[in-house]
Design goal:
The protein has 599 residues and is α+β, with helices and mostly antiparallel strands. It contains 15 helices and 28 strands. A hairpin with a 2-residue loop joins strand 8 and strand 9. Residues 78-477 form the Solute-binding protein family domain.
Length: 599
C-alpha cells in the first residue's frame, strides 16, 4: 500500500502541457446554479467551490498556499487601504480581462454590491445589518478603484475575510434585461429587472431536469468569465466539462486541455471507479476515497492513513469548516415549538456519539466538533474549554433522558410524552400541549454509507433517552432544495424538521454572523436569539480572542444546530501520473489549473 502524501505544485516533475483530467464527484449534488449570486438553498461545495469559482473569481482569493490566509497574487483586488479613522476602505481592481476582452473595473464590483443592496435576502451569504447594510456610503474613486465607508469601526481582519470576501465582480455584459443594456452598476432602480433577467437565464434552480443547463456553455451571458476556466458543456446527465479560458489574466494558467467532472450516485460506485484505475476505459484521474472504504485507521485526520488504492495518492482536504444537522425553527407545527426549547436541543446533542463515530465509522479520519469554530486546521480561534474534550455536551443518553424528565416529559416510553405542559419551571415549554410525542423526522443525504451508520446510531441512542428519530434518505440535490430556509405560507408550508446533507459551513473568519445571526442567509433553520446576536456583534468589532471564545461557548451550549463529527471535506485520490495537486486549500477550493501530467 502507498502512504498518504502531499505533492507540492511545481516541485515533483516538469509540467507537461495538455491532456484531459476526469474527476468523479460526490453523489447527489449536480451544479444547479451558474449565476454566482447564489440563494441560500443552493449554497454548497458543489455549486460554489467546484463549479462557479472556476469561472467567476471573487474579489479576494483565499488559501492558495495551504493556510487560511488571503492570496493577493491570485486576487482581483489589491490589498485594501484604510483611512486613519478606520471607517473607510479603498480597494483597487487589477486590470485583468474578462474573456470578452472587457477590463475588470470598479463598475464590476459595484454591480455586485448593488445586487446585494437590493436583493441581499436572496443571496446565501447576506446577513441583515451587515454588508452592505453597514455602509454609510460607497462608490467609485476611479475606473479601477472603489471605496466603502462603514457605519462604525469594525475589525479590519473581519471586513476583509467576511465582508469584502463576499464580492464577486460581474461583467458589464451581464448588466442588461430582455430589453437591452441596463445600469444596475450605477442605478439601484435597475437592479430588480437585471436580477430577474439573470435568474431566468439559468433556468429553474430547483428543477432536477432543468434543460437550461445544457445551454449554459453557449450562453452570451455565462460564457463571459474572469477565472481560469470556461464551460465547454453540461449534459442533462450531469457531466460538466471545462476548457481553459484563453484570456485569463491570473498568475496560474491551466496546463490541461480539458477538465471533466462526472457524477456518481453512491460511495460504492465511486470506489469501484477508483479500483478500476486511472487508465481504465472511462477511467478517472481524480476522485475521493469514501470514508466507509478506508481499510486502516488514520493516525491524524490531516495526514490520513494507508491508501488502499496503489495507483493513486491520497490528499486529505481538511477544510476550515464545521458540520452539523439543521433544525427548522420555522416549522409551524409543534416540532418548531420543541426546537425552540434549549433543553430539547441539548438532549439531541447529548444523544449523538461523536467519539465512537470518529473511531469506528470514520476510521480516525474524523474529529469531534463541539461548537461553531472549526477544530482543524488548528488555530487559536477555538475556545480553551472546547479544545480540551467533549465540553459542553458529551455523549450521554442518560443525561438527555434526565433533561427531558426534568422538563415535563414521560420517558418511560419512546417517543416520550409531554405530561407537564406550560411555561413554568419543570414544564415542557410554550406551544407544547399535553400528550405531545417527542418524534422528529430526520432526513439525510443518500449514498453515503458512513453517514447512514452515524444517523442510525444517533437514532438508537436518542431512543434510549425517549426521542424518536424517524430516518429518511433523500437524493442530495432534492434534499437541500426541499429542506432549505423558508417561512410558512400557503405555498411554502415549511414543514421540514431536521436535515443533514453531510456538510455544514466553510468559514473565512469564524465569527458566526452568517450562520447564527437572526435572518442571516446561512441561518437555514431561522434560529434567533438576541443574546447570540449581541455576542456576534461584539466579535465583528474586536480582534480580542476572549470575545470570540465567549460567543462560541454560548453557541455550543445553546446548540442552534446539532454538531456532528467533522472530517476532511474530501479524501482526494489523485492518479500518480498527475502533478501539481498540492498544497491543499483549507477553504475547500480546487485549482485544476495547477494540475498537469508529468513528463
Amino acid at each position: 500500500m502507498t502512504s498518504a502524501s502531499t505533492i507540492t505544485a511545481g516541485t515533483d516533475a516538469t509540467p507537461r502541457k495538455g491532456g484531459v483530467v476526469t474527476w468523479a464527484c460526490a453523489p447527489g449534488f449536480p451544479p444547479a446554479v451558474i449565476f454566482p449570486f447564489t440563494p441560500a438553498e443552493r449554497m454548497g461545495t458543489r455549486n460554489i467551490l467546484e463549479f462557479q469559482a472556476l469561472m467567476y473569481r471573487t474579489l479576494y482569493y483565499f488559501g492558495s498556499d495551504g493556510t487560511p490566509n488571503v492570496d493577493y497574487a491570485q486576487s482581483i483586488g489589491e490589498e485594501p487601504v484604510w483611512s486613519e479613522d478606520g471607517l473607510t476602505v479603498r480597494v483597487k481592481v487589477k486590470p485583468w480581462k474578462w474573456s470578452n476582452g472587457e477590463t475588470l473595473s470598479a463598475e464590476n464590483v459595484l454591480f455586485w454590491v448593488n445586487l446585494m443592496k437590493v436583493k441581499g435576502a436572496r443571496y446565501g451569504e447576506y446577513v441583515p445589518g451587515y454588508f452592505p447594510d453597514n455602509l454609510t456610503d460607497y462608490g467609485k474613486v476611479a475606473d479601477d478603484e472603489v471605496f466603502f465607508t462603514f457605519d462604525k469601526v469594525y475589525s479590519k481582519h473581519w471586513v476583509l475575510y467576511n465582508q469584502l470576501s463576499t464580492i464577486t465582480p460581474l461583467p458589464r455584459a451581464w448588466d442588461r434585461t430582455d430589453a437591452g443594456p441596463a445600469n444596475a452598476s450605477g442605478d439601484l432602480a435597475d437592479v430588480e429587472a437585471v436580477y430577474e433577467y439573470l435568474m431566468a437565464q439559468q433556468g429553474n434552480i430547483v428543477d432536477e431536469g432543468n434543460a437550461h443547463r445544457t445551454k449554459w456553455a453557449d450562453s452570451p451571458i455565462w460564457s463571459i468569465v474572469s477565472g481560469p476556466w470556461r464551460l465547454k458543456s453540461y449534459t442533462l446527465e450531469g457531466v460538466v466539462t471545462f476548457v481553459p479560458n484563453e484570456h485569463y489574466s491570473g498568475p496560474n494558467k491551466p496546463y490541461l486541455d480539458e477538465f471533466r467532472q462526472v457524477p456518481t450516485f453512491s460511495d460504492e460506485e465511486q470506489y469501484e471507479m477508483l479500483k478500476a484505475g486511472p487508465d481504465a476505459e472511462n477511467g478517472i484521474q481524480v476522485g475521493y476515497l469514501p470514508l466507509s472504504f478506508a481499510t486502516e485507521p488514520a493516525i491524524d485526520p490531516v495526514v490520513g492513513g494507508p491508501n488502499p488504492l496503489t495507483e493513486y495518492t491520497m490528499f486529505p482536504q481538511s477544510a476550515f469548516c464545521i458540520r452539523y444537522i439543521s433544525l427548522n425553527f420555522n416549522n409551524p407545527t409543534v416540532v418548531g415549538k420543541m426546537f425552540a426549547q434549549t433543553y430539547i436541543r441539548q438532549a439531541l446533542q447529548s444523544s449523538l456519539d461523536q467519539d465512537t463515530a470518529v473511531r469506528d465509522i470514520y476510521q480516525g479520519y474524523a474529529y469531534r466538533q463541539n461548537g461553531p469554530v472549526p477544530m482543524y486546521p488548528k488555530t487559536d480561534y477555538v475556545s480553551p474549554r472546547q479544545r480540551e474534550g467533549a465540553w459542553p455536551l458529551p455523549f450521554s443518553p442518560g443525561n438527555a433522558k434526565a433533561l427531558l424528565e426534568a422538563n415535563g416529559w414521560d420517558t418511560s416510553v419512546t417517543p416520550a410524552v409531554c405530561v407537564r405542559p406550560g411555561t413554568g419551571p419543570g414544564e415542557a415549554g410554550a406551544g407544547i400541549p399535553a400528550g405531545t410525542k417527542l418524534s422528529i423526522l430526520l432526513r439525510y443525504v443518500e449514498g453515503r454509507p458512513a453517514l447512514t451508520r452515524v444517523m442510525e446510531n444517533f437514532r438508537d441512542a436518542a431512543a434510549e433517552a425517549g426521542i424518536e428519530l424517524r430516518l429518511e434518505e433523500v437524493y442530495g440535490s432534492i434534499l437541500v432544495a426541499e429542506d432549505g430556509p423558508c417561512e410558512p405560507t400557503a405555498t411554502t408550508p415549511c414543514t421540514w424538521e431536521m436535515c443533514c446533507w453531510n456538510g455544514g459551513w466553510a468559514y473565512h473568519h469564524p465569527t458566526g454572523e452568517i450562520l447564527f445571526s437572526t435572518k442571516a442567509g446561512g441561518n437555514f433553520g431561522f434560529y434567533t436569539d438576541p443574546k447570540a446576536d449581541e455576542l456576534i456583534e461584539r466579535t465583528v468589532t474586536s480582534d480580542d480572542l476572549d470575545v470570540l471564545y465567549e460567543y462560541q461557548d454560548y453557541i455550543a451550549n445553546e446548540v442552534p444546530v446539532i454538531f456532528t463529527p467533522n472530517f476532511p471535506i474530501r479524501l482526494f485520490e489523485v492518479a500518480n501520473t498527475l502533478g501539481g495537486f498540492g498544497p491543499i486549500n483549507p477553504y475547500g477550493m480546487i485549482n485544476p489549473e495547477n494540475w498537469y501530467y508529468r513528463d
